[in-house]
Design brief:
- The chain is mainly alpha-helical and 510 residues long.
- It is 76% helix and 1% strand.
- The chain is built from 22 helices and 2 strands.
- A two-stranded antiparallel ribbon has the order 1-2.
- Helix 1 runs antiparallel to helix 2, helix 1 runs antiparallel to helix 5 and helix 5 crosses helix 19.
- About 2% of the residues have low confidence.
């Protein structure tokens, strides 16, 4: 998985890791912040949350158009500075009145605009690393690695948000409402690291920007893509738009992690955890498990005795660490709602080599699904995740009844959400990195920035629809109904993908 990748991948991936760490630190507590600081009801808070997500993923369309005209590198650097200003405004404790609400709105616009300039264009740059013939067959695995790096940042974000808030309350005497701003300030620091990485290692990817600096090398000149006919261009754009239509509903379902799934964690999940289960809420234990997974792959794939020895040492050290942490357990640990958002990125990091190895093996025996088929399978798996939530929610109180401390009913084991995030992560690995790779491969060269922008535009529409289950929650729909709607949408989307699979496969093989 790591072999023969272009060096520029690691620089761009690490730059994105820093940016995503800040973003997910902010996002882990944002919905709860809206309710705690401003007193917004669930429906209003959910609408603000989903509208912000919509802007974050819609504005890459503008960023893509701007990049096609002004250059990808210039838009990436502009975007990260705009984001920094947005997070800086959000980190200021301005109270609860109109001025604070207006400042919060301004910060969200700046963060979304900066992300629009940065996110999609950085991924186009990653795609261009694989235009060279020697890297062409590494595109899907490269994007899986890039996606894994994003989730390394996201993995530590919930813990960072909770720890910095607890520290501010305990050591600075800050109120719980004002402590949220310390979590937002973490994003400012992470962006400084991100832009530093981007500039320090620019030599590894500067060739993909050669056309913008008018310094094309002879190799890049030879690698120029051929013009497509109007018919080919139209066919590719139509197929991409059909995929975008399905992507809308995946993200509507998947991004419930910061919305209804967080509300479920707060209102329906047990507040404490003991024994082996409690270890899952310490991110260092999850990191140790990841080392076991990677060490196992290293042990199986190393070609030298030294490599196998190092891999075995990593496995033994990680298991010893976990054994030590288990023996050091004392009583129950508190479980806070945002911490559940660490499981999805941890699963992504742990399962990426499993996913890559599985599909590499299927490729060798000639049975690897095509990219469109993987997207369809991802929708089916996502549906299974919400079916599992529906089964686990049977017999629970209605949201408004459960949300009132005086009428609160049964709380369920944290294992329900932990296992649901595992299922949804399998779906994400089938759809998100593969979908991005599909776009960079199929998009007509003249419209590469626009097509990547439209991918995020589809994601934006899905994120705007995230509010619908939140509104249903606020309207006191039963949990089985809410999860059932999400499962049904995913199944219908999967059927649509497989109904046009031949058309999509034709362009993906070009």
């Amino acid at each position: 998985m790591f072999e023969n990748q272009p060096k520029g991948l690691w620089a761009l991936a690490l730059a994105n890791t820093g940016e995503r760490f800040g973003y997910y630190t902010m996002l882990a507590v944002f919905l709860l912040y809206l309710q705690a600081n401003f007193g917004f009801e669930t429906g209003m808070a959910s609408t603000i949350y989903s509208t912000f997500l919509m802007m974050v993923y819609f504005l890459p369309i503008i960023g893509g158009i701007a990049a096609d005209k002004f250059g990808f590198g210039r838009m990436v650097t502009t975007g990260i500075f705009v984001m920094f200003i947005g997070y800086l405004v959000l980190s200021l404790p301005l109270g609860k009145e109109t001025v604070a609400i207006a400042a919060m709105g301004l910060s969200l616009i700046l963060i979304a605009l900066g992300t629009g300039l940065f996110k999609g264009n950085l991924q186009v740059m990653v795609g261009r690393l694989y235009d060279a013939p020697q890297y062409a067959d590494k595109r899907d695995s490269g994007f899986s690695l890039f996606y894994m790096a994003i989730n390394i940042g996201a993995m530590f974000a919930p813990t960072a948000a909770i720890k910095i808030m607890d520290w501010a309350q305990a050591n600075l005497g800050v109120s719980p409402e004002d402590s949220y701003h310390f979590a937002f300030a973490v994003a400012c620091v992470s962006l400084i690291l991100s832009i530093a990485i981007y500039y320090i290692f620019s030599s590894t990817y500067k060739h993909v920007l050669a056309g913008e600096t008018q310094q094309k090398s002879s190799d890049s000149a030879k690698a120029e893509v051929q013009e497509l006919s109007k018919a080919e261009t139209k066919e590719r754009i139509v197929c991409l738009c059909l995929v975008f239509a399905v992507v809308i509903f995946f993200w509507m379902a998947f991004h419930q992690n910061g919305n209804t799934l967080t509300l479920f964690a707060r209102d329906y999940t047990q507040k404490t955890s003991e024994g082996l289960q409690s270890m899952a809420f310490d991110v260092t234990n999850l990191v140790a498990c990841i080392f076991v997974v990677y060490g196992s792959f290293g042990l199986a794939q190393s070609k030298t005795g030294k490599g196998k020895g190092i891999s075995l040492g990593i496995i033994v050290a990680a298991i010893a660490f976990l054994f030590y942490k288990y023996n050091a357990l004392e009583g129950a640990v508190d479980v806070k709602a945002p911490i559940f958002q660490q499981f999805n990125p941890c699963y992504v990091v742990a399962l990426t080599p499993v996913s890559v190895a599985l599909f590499s093996w299927l490729n060798k025996i000639g049975k690897e699904p095509t990219s469109p088929e993987k997207i369809g399978l991802g929708m089916i798996v996502a549906a299974l995740g919400f079916i599992w939530m529906a089964v686990g929610s049977m017999g629970l109180e209605l949201p408004l009844t459960q949300g009132d401390a005086a009428t609160e009913g049964t709380r369920v084991s944290a294992n329900l959400l932990i296992s649901t995030y595992l299922i949804l992560t399998f779906a994400e690995l089938l759809l998100s990195p593969i979908g991005i790779s599909f776009v960079t491969k199929v998009a007509p060269p003249k419209y590469a920035g626009l097509m990547m922008g439209l991918w995020f535009g589809a994601t934006a529409l899905g994120n705007q629809l995230v509010m619908i289950p939140g509104i249903m929650w606020g309207a006191n729909f039963s949990l089985v109904t809410i999860w059932g709607v999400l499962a049904g949408i995913c199944l219908v989307s999967a059927l649509f993908i497989f109904s046009i699979i031949k058309k999509l496969n034709n362009v993906s093989r070009v």
